[in-house]
Specification:
mainly alpha, 4 helices, 0% strand, elongated, single chain
């Protein structure tokens, strides 16, 4: 379960790397791209939670990934209003996701 979570979260990260430059440049990325990123991240988070419940992973990593997900929902709410979200929130969202993913990857070792 944990390896699958890491793979899907890595896909979400790559998709996120494609979103960030547009938003940091005051443009909205394409909605399908944003939806794919969110869907991959959500699936990865669910798999990470299931892994944690089966005794794998790291509770701290999952908590941080939940914080990143909440930030993602907040960012997506701006996308739905056709507004560019605040840059600090974009950065905090990305940092939380990277830290959560890193801790989860360390737990898999």
């Amino acid at each position: 379960m944990l390896p699958a979570a890491l793979i899907i979260l890595a896909i979400a990260a790559v998709l996120g790397l494609g979103l960030a430059p547009a938003m940091l440049g005051n443009k909205l990325p394409a909605m399908p791209h944003a939806l794919l990123h969110g869907a991959a991240a959500a699936i990865g988070l669910v798999l990470a939670i299931l892994a944690l419940l089966s005794g794998q992973g790291s509770s701290l990593a999952v908590i941080i990934l939940v914080v990143a997900a909440l930030g993602g929902f907040f960012l997506f709410s701006f996308h739905l209003k056709d507004k560019v979200p605040p840059k600090p929130v974009i950065v905090v969202h990305a940092l939380a996701a990277v830290v959560g993913f890193s801790l989860l990857a360390l737990a898999a070792l």
